[in-house]
Amino acid sequence: MRRDLCDGVGIARLLNATLVLPKFEVAAYWNESSGFADVFDVEYFIHQMNGFIKVVKELPSEFASKEPFQVDCSKRKGQFDYVESVLPSLLEHRYISITPAMSQRRDRYPQNAKAALCQACYNALRLTRSLEKKASELLEAIPKPFLSLHLRFEPDMVAYSQCQYSGLSSASIKTIEAAQGDRKPWTGELARIWRKRGKCPLTPNETAFILQALSIPTSTNIYLAAGDGLMEIEGLTSVYTNVVTKSSLLTGEDFTSMHGNTKAALDYHVSINSDSYVATYFGNMDKMVAAMRAFKGLYKTLFLSRRAFADFTSQGLRGRDLMQALQKAHRDDFVIGRGSALPYCFCEVKL
Fold first, then answer.
1. With 60 as the cut, is the pLDDT of residue 351 above it?
2. Where does the chain hold its CATH 3.40.50 domain(s)?
3. Sheet strands (E) in the chain
4. What membrane topology does the UniProt entry give (predicted)?
5. 242: which of 45, 63, 216, 256 is 20 to 30 A away, CA to CA?
6. Is the pTM higher than 0.85?
7. How far is residue 51's CA from residue 261's CA, in Å, rounded to a whole number?
8. Could you tell me which CATH number the domain at 130-153+201-336 has?
9. What is the pLDDT of residues 139-187, one digit of tens each?
């Protein structure tokens, strides 16, 4: 959502258009109805974007009762697509809604659009005061120093990956099957190829093994940045015993009544301020956290290599041999965030 909002800012600057504060389409994520103002400081955002683009909270009365003209930008890749294909619709209908363009080439934007997008991403978006206070309380409660671990092994994630796993509990298998629908897992040689491409989420047990291979002590304080529904979590906590979550540290009624968006914002805040950050996937949150940590000068950020793990295990490596191979594969992989999210927002500096 944060990424799509930043994209919207860049596109608004490209088209010289006014941006209306967005409404989150959250049903697909959390099945709830929180909005922009529940997560982000609206007044701060509008003030910080002044001079870059014009932002309004609500539609003018002449458009308030109308539905926007829908423009599908999912195939757009550069500034000329927006100017040539989208601007005419904006001029004609004056009020449009844009489908996020997953494959757009932001590096082709003119400098003014890049500046607006970078300003939104790194300077204009901050949590609401109340949410920031709650996030600070959470950060304070975590034993220091600590590693923030973004672990992705939820039923919908596994079902979407179409990967096969052996050794899962019957409860996990049933939960995954219920989430699969028509998306059945690959079998045979296709399953092996898919896994070797690094497409399969790491299990908590595999994650614990790789962390040990990287010589991360089992006594390490770990904050688990994850939503509800993680499966097989014992595979991690049986090895790394100092694992905490937001639900274990914040138990008040104000926390239990929080929306999924605001709970995810807590994980995001903790992750960009943690001593170290490790991700088992390479999703939107991971890319943005890595970039924000680089922006803050926090460089201990690591993406665990699912491809390396699959490749080595397919070769039959086990135990100490597997650990040594994984350690070598990850040795040069600590990243500073550039290339992970909006790399053109970083100045090129030679030290």
1. no
2. 130-153+201-336
3. 19-20, 55-56, 69-72, 96-99, 146-150, 221-225, 243-244, 276-279, 301-303
4. Single-pass type II membrane protein
5. 256
6. yes
7. 29
8. 3.40.50
9. 999 999 999 999 999 999 999 999 999 999 999 999 999 999 888 999 9
